[in-house]
Amino acid sequence: xxxxxxxxxxxxxxxxxxxxxxxxxxxxxxxxxxxxxxxxxxxxxxxxxxxxxxxxxxxxxxxxxxxxxxxxxxxxxxxxxxxxxxxxxxxxxxxxxxxxxxxxxxxxxxxxxxxxxxxxxxxxxxxxxxxxxxxxxxxxxxxxxxxxxxxxxxxxxxxxxxxxxxxxxxxxxxxxxxxxxxxxxxxxxxxxxxxxxxxxxxxxxxxxxxxxxxxxxxxxxxxxxxxxxxxxxxxxxxxxxxxxxxxxxxxxxxxxxxxxxxxxxxxxxxxxxxxxxxxxxxxxxxxxxxxxxxxxxxxxxxxxxxxxxxxxxxxxxxxxxxxxxxxxxxxxxxxxxxxxxxxxxxxxxxxxxxxxxxxxxxxxxxxxxxxxxxxxxxxxxxxxxxxxxxxxxxxxxxxxxxxxxxxxxxxxxxxxxxxxxxxxxxxxxxxxxxxxxxxxxxxxxxxxxxxxxxxxxxxxxxxxxxxxxxxxxxxxxxxxxxxxxxxxxxxxxxxxxxxxxxxxxxxxxxxxxxxxxxxxxxxxxxxxxxxxxxxxxxxxxxxxx
Length: 545
Ligand code: G3H
What we know:
Elements: H1 7-11, E1 30-31, E2 34-37, E3 40-43, E4 48-58, E5 64-73, H2 77-91, H3 97-100, H4 103-119, H5 121-132, H6 136-163, E6 168-170, E7 173-181, E8 184-188, H7 196-207, E9 211-215, H8 228-234, E10 240-242, H9 247-256, E11 262-266, H10 269-278, E12 286-290, E13 295-299, H11 305-317, E14 327-333, H12 334-349, H13 371-384, E15 388-389, E16 397-398, E17 401-402, E18 405-408, H14 415-418, E19 425-431, H15 434-442, E20 446-447, E21 449-453, H16 457-467, E22 473-476, E23 492-493, E24 496-497, H17 502-508, E25 510-518, H18 521-532
Parallel strand pairs: 1-5, 8-9, 8-11, 9-10, 11-12, 13-14, 13-21, 14-19, 18-19, 21-22
Antiparallel strand pairs: 2-3, 4-5, 6-7, 7-25, 12-24, 15-18, 16-17, 20-23
Helix pairs in contact: 2-9, 4-6, 4-8, 5-6, 6-7, 7-17, 11-12
Family: Belongs to the aldehyde dehydrogenase family.
Domain Aldehyde dehydrogenase: 68-510
InterPro entries: Ald_DH/histidinol_DH (IPR016161), Ald_DH_C (IPR016163), Ald_DH_CS_CYS (IPR016160), Ald_DH_N (IPR016162), Aldehyde_DH_dom (IPR015590), Aldehyde_DH_Superfamily (IPR050740)
């Protein structure tokens, strides 16, 4: 179905209750009344927040109603403090059971957790879909990618640990060097990949021997409810603890306590900046951050436009443009702008707009109720400064369904030029000289990725060399993206701090530490005794298969 729709046609895209396929229906709302602190699922009798889906249903009188998914506890700073206390006790300045446990045993705990997680696959995938409106196919992909990420993490840790399972002798010093945990990690993931991006920090942090305070994102909270028991049963008490409640209320006291050793946040640079400054001993705080981005596509005059449009549609509009890696500005050489816009409009016409369970759906309801209004303000602002929406119906919306808008020509006076829209608007900026395209990227506050579309090797090489010093991934003739997860995912400027690939994340959540002794017969005998007697989790030459 084409997406050039009138608002009443958009309303008709929402189902009646009966039209929701049985396989995806919410049989009963999930009312979570437990929080995980110190290895206990504690009953919560206080205030709760109702979760309403971005998916609406049409009622008999023609109104649209957001579907109730369930509710979850809104805890206070008191419960966060209890969670912090439990985590600190479990870590016990690095002397706790979990941080001193051998790597092979920690891996077994994570494997046990993964088995329990997989048992909940169907329920979690359905909750991702209902809570954030991600298509059923992509929700399933998110789950499976996460499980695969955990498996890859386990393999990477085995390799890392096995490589360190030996002594080195340099200049008369015998040493064994391993990676050790950092302490209490506060993990906060984003709403667009609530499971995957939370776990790409939580799992490496956990498996390296840290203890976790985990705050679910603002949308995509309930999907963690089915996992709480698995956390409780797979790890020693206090190793994983939950924090609910409004972020601005419950998170600052955690940072002010000085007891958080690592802030792992996938979110906005504004929030990260504020939180870091609250820590009383900033030198003790490590930050692992995935932040804002405004990735650009640069389309050269000799680009293969069919391929370019295909990649740019995917890059700009997968999950409605709600990806940190999305293409958020398209810079097109003026000589091919008209042809590009025509092909892009045609591609937009072919995108299916609808409910997340529909096969082949591309555009689905947006979880943030304020987003359609914000996007429309951006379009109005662009129109005021001379741009127009090029595709029929672009920018129309009904409740949470928003028709993607191709906006052209965008210039520096418009909000869309610099603001990260994080939604289904595609701002297109024409350029005449390659230097202008380069200077857009150079003068940006963000530095995550860029995509170049063209066929001339010399021009592309000329662009790549300056761009690799502006961003952390230059994509040639393809959209920006995070994966494959073994590749480094990071950014410059206000886009990231630290690197998150499968292997890099293990390093980000640990520090190298070593045991050293003089190369004397007495030292050798002593170390032999420890190794052969299996007396230490650190000093050993065990190989983990
Ligand atoms: O939101 C940011 C995600 O890390 C993007 O991941 O490029 O695989 O969609 P993706």
